[in-house]
Structure formats: C-alpha cells, structure tokens
Amino acid sequence: MLAQMSPRMEPRKKASLLADNTSFVKQSHALDSAISRHIIKDLEEDEYIPADDLYEGSWGTTGVNAGRLAIENIPDSIYFDLTGYIPAIEGKVTSRFGPRWKRYHYGIDIKLNVGDPVASVFDGKIRITRYDRGGYGSYVVVRHDNGLETVYGHFSKILVTEGQVVRAGEIIGLGGNSGKSTGPHLHFETRFLGNPINPEKFFDFELGEAKVSSYLMVKEIAFHWAKPYRNKSQEASTSVAKKKFHKVRNGETLTRISKRYGVSINQLCRLNGINKKRSLRVGQTIRYN
Ligand SMILES: [Zn+2]
Fold this sequence. Notes:
Elements: H1 18-30, H2 34-47, H3 52-55, E1 77-81, E2 93-95, E3 98-100, E4 103-105, E5 108-111, E6 117-119, E7 124-132, E8 137-143, E9 148-155, E10 157-158, E11 165-166, E12 171-174, E13 185-192, E14 195-197, E15 203-204, E16 209-210, E17 214-218, H4 219-222, H5 233-242, E18 245-247, H6 254-261, H7 265-272, E19 285-287
Antiparallel strand pairs: 1-17, 2-5, 3-4, 5-13, 6-12, 7-8, 7-11, 8-9, 9-13, 10-12, 13-14, 15-16, 18-19
Helix pairs in contact: 1-2
Bound molecules: zinc ion.
C-alpha cells in the first residue's frame, strides 16, 4: 500500500489534566443520568487521547503516517496489551503483509462483500477519516490505548467522524472497493508510531482472536521490512536470544531492578518503552539487557 510521507503533524494542545479527567470519567460512569453521560462524552472526545505518552501529543489528521517516528527512535522493545481484541470482520485473508507487485504491502487483505460491517478491533479514538482515490479509498485510522493504530481501507461508507471515541467491535464503516482495489476487500494495517507491523504477528485471522494477551514487540523483528533491518533476520534472531528479562515480583520498583542488574533506570525505560513514573505490574516482564 502507500508509503506517503507527511510533514510532522500539527502540534495538539497538550491535555495536561488528562490523568485527573480519566479518574473523573471513571467516577462519572457510576452516575446514571443524562447529564453525566453528556459530560463523559465531552470529556472523552476532547481530552481523551489514547496512548498520548507514547505519541507525545502528536495527533495528525493529514495522513495514515502523519507524525511518524523514525524507526531508529522507536523503543527497542515494548509490550502491547492485546486483550479486548475483536476482529474487524471475519473472512478469508487474500493477501498478506510483504512485497507485492514490486511494492510493499503494509497490511493484509480480507475478502468481504460490499456493505459488510467492519468493526474497530480495540477501544480507541478515530484519528482520521479520509478519501484517498489512488490508494486506501475511503479509510479510517483508529488510535488505541495499547499504543497501536489500526487502518481500515477501501470502505464503501464511513460511519464515524474524526475525534469520535469508539469501542472494540463498534462498526466504523461498510466494506467496499474504493481506491486502488481490484475487488471488494478490507485492507487492514496495524501501525506503531506511524510504522506498519504485520498484523498477523498479533492476530490469528482464521480463529478471530489475538495470538497472545500481551505481545512483546522486538524492534528488529517487528520492522524487518525496514531499511536498517532488511536482510538481517538472521542477526535479529541471534540478538533476541541475548536479550535478558526479569519478571516483576510484588513490591518491586524500577529502582530495585536497576540496582539488581546494574542497569540505569533510563536504560530500563528505553528498553521497555515505559515511562519512569509508571508503576510496574506484578508478573510484568521487564527487559534489562
Ligand atoms: Zn491491501
């Protein structure tokens, strides 16, 4: 599919009170009145930006990879929480991620009939709805809390608007044949910080479920298609073997893990794509080498 380069997206007003708003949203859910529902909706749509710490305020609406972060600046590894996944549509995969027709196919194609409903695979917020005549056709991009974005192409009709909050399984459009397409199908992509990752690493499209509940992305493998890593799959598998992990036990902090393995906290954050302030979960796997 397309590899259009877009300028860095326009800066978005930072939602500095995001944390407070989030807890307010939770509290408000307990109230059952039309007024509280109205407040929740406004808060969600204006202030709620999924995975905002990873995207650092970037919320571009100019294209699929608006605000793309260069692969060298992406964390070496990061966990994606895949719980709550619901397939966009059940159907046969007709084309896979990889080189195709002398170009690169940055997603997978799923056969459908024009008018079939297509759902968002996770909760999230609609970043883009757009028509791209020479490529994606009518398409939708959704940003999710786990840091992934999903792209849905060739719709016959888009049923959501930019900035709308959606739930996993919510219908966002009807399947079609718009754009550069040779028959009705869904072109589906998963992207991280603007860079595509093969969706079949995360999801089993035959079984209609996520392959694991928590996916450890290793950069060299996830972006094997990209220049720095191309033809290096052999080296990548060797380097993965050298990586070392620690399972977080009750009461452990980044500081303690840092001291135990003689690795700086900054290095731990970089290796795991996490924030210093974020508390660790018991059972979480932390890479320290
Ligand atoms: Zn495709």
